[in-house]
Amino acid sequence: MPSAPSKSRYLVEEKLDFPYAAQVFTLRREVTQMASQKSRTEIVQGLSSLPVERATPAYLFALSRGQWTIENRLHWVRDVTFDEDRSRVRTGAGGQVMASLRNLAISLLLAGARYIAPALRHCARSDFQTLRLIGLRF
Fold first, then answer.
1. pLDDT the model gives residue 4
2. Lowest-confidence segment of 66-70, 98-102, 107-111 by average pLDDT
3. Which of 23, 26, 24, 56 minimizes the C-alpha distance to 41?
4. Disulfide engineering: 5 pairs with which of 9, 33, 92, 104, CB 3.0-4.6 Å?
5. Distance in angstroms (rounded) separating the CA atoms of residues 111 and 119
6. Residues 30-79: pLDDT tens digits?
7. How confident is the model at residue 13 (pLDDT cuts 50, 70, 90)?
């Protein structure tokens, strides 16, 4: 059974005026730069719609770690495999459209492939296989 929330948590909840928000939490991270081995402390705030009874500190921490795993994997694919940082599409809605198309490609490929890069190479060699990914049968 979770321990009773601290008095300060109730004070925060009473003053919290945000739709569907049940609690605010703080995460303290120790971050070490791999190249320089310099460390720094980051303190970030979080907001959850889960009540205190359902979202223990350990559960909120696990959710936060899981989010970073997703972020790191997605950004790696976008930065390395799609080389998005060097994209020269900058006018109008072009950048947003290309980012949406990349997201669509990633989603389609992840539905049936473990690794994005080999799946992209396979699709580049097989027009019909690529069309099957979006539901077209030939």
1. 44
2. 66-70
3. 26
4. 9
5. 11
6. 888 888 999 999 988 888 888 888 888 888 888 888 777 767 677 788 88
7. low
Side chain identity at residue 88, one-letter code: R
pTM, rounded to two decimals: 0.47
Which DSSP symbol is given to 85? G
Other C-beta atoms closer than 10 Å to the C-beta of 47 total 12
Quickly tell me which residue has 């995460």 as its tokens.
27
**CA proximity to 89, closest of 75, 104, 80, 100:** 100
Tokens 């992209």 belong to 120
User: Which amino acid is located at 39 in the chain?
Assistant: S
The set of residues, in sequence order, having a beta carbon less than 8 Å from that of 107 and lying 6+ positions away, is none
Question: Cβ neighbours of residue 59 under 8 Å, at least 6 residues apart?
Answer: 50
Between CA 107 and CA 118 the distance in angstroms is 15
Contact present, 46 and 27 (Cβ < 8 Å):
yes
